[in-house]
Amino acid sequence: MNALNLSHRENFKGNYLEPAMKAGLIEMTYPDSPNHPNQKYRLTAEGNKLKKIYK
User: Fold this and answer.
1) pTM across the whole model
2) Residue 13, SS3?
3) Running along the chain, 55 residues long, what does each successive block of 10 average in pLDDT?
């Protein structure tokens, strides 16, 4: 969030995180436990393709 200069977590989640997940660009590291204390997000194969295009 800091890299994008965003400060409101709910806006980030609704405007960026959830749409990227629905589009298949990112995935949870613990998909069965969304509130897992070590939850992180990683790029999918599609996300990596898009990253290479815009790099």
Assistant:
1) 0.76
2) helix
3) 68 89 96 94 95 90
